[in-house]
Amino acid sequence: MKLSRIFLLLALPYSAVAMILMTVAYLVAYRPDVSNYFTNGSPLPIQAAVFACLAVAFGVVGAILSKRLGTPFVKPSAPSFAVLPAALGSLVTAVLLFIAKEPLPAVLFLLTAVYFALSASSLAKRYASAILWVGFASVAATVVLNAAYYFDMAVEMNAPVKILLQMGLLAAMLYCCIEMRISAGLTNGSFTPILTVLAVALCGLSSVPIAVLQFVGKLPALAYFAASPVLFGICVTASLRLCQLIAATEPKTATTEEATEKERTPE
């Protein structure tokens, strides 16, 4: 396995450790009955952030090494069942937002579920252009829900719950742009593994801990829990796409030296 792919592989366990540490931090150091902040002196949130940053750093290093070594990652293909977790998560989020009386983001996430479902079907090849237009709903959905959290005056602007969800939704928005490029069949770029790792780290960091908070009754409102399913779905989808990048091999082509040597060899 090439060195660049080893760094991408390391991003997965580091993201998982960050998610576990953040979940434990919310369970033992988060006191919403006192304030919407962690208790002073708790090292767990900082440790979780460090592991998440290391995971993203591995993605950046992997992308840089791939470019320098001349071994580009093979672009994932569409259709692919890898996007089904994102489709299911978007659908659950849409239902929860309807229940929470947030109709605009609910409709947008419903369209997002349709987009990911179409991307997993055989229609992804025949109607790629039309499906791509539906995909813009996924970007709009994350932006609208992020704005709803930002302007919610009931929760402090720098409360950990709000910041965590905003970071997760931002990573989800960037990753949706990657999936739109895949659907459109556009060429691959070095930012693909970086944004994929970013989605794995931040969407995982914000989805599972928020879901745990909901089940233990520590979330301020149902609307905050609504983001958890789609973030977890995108985290799983991005993880599967990352595994595809790691496992894929480049098509074998003759190097310049081989071609030159062949020209020098007499018939």
Low-confidence stretches: 251-263
> Could you give the distance between the termini?
37 Å
Query: Rough shape?
Result: flat
Please tell me how large the radius of gyration is: 21 Å
Fraction of residues in helix? over 70%
Helix/strand structural class: mainly alpha
Number of domains: 1
Mean pLDDT across every amino acid position = 85
In DSSP terms (H or I, runs of 4 or more residues), the helix count works out at 10
Map the helices and strands.
Layout: H1 3-29, H2 44-69, H3 84-99, H4 103-119, H5 123-126, H6 128-150, H7 160-184, H8 191-215, H9 222-247, H10 256-264
Helix pairs in contact: 1-2, 1-8, 1-9, 2-8, 3-4, 3-9, 4-6, 6-7, 7-8, 7-9, 8-9
Quick rundown:
With 267 residues, the protein is mainly alpha-helical.
Please tell me about this protein's structure.
With 267 residues, this protein is mainly alpha-helical. The chain has one domain. The protein is flat. The two termini are 37 Å apart. 44% of the residues are buried. About 5% of the residues have low confidence.
Keywords:
74% helix, single chain, 267 residues
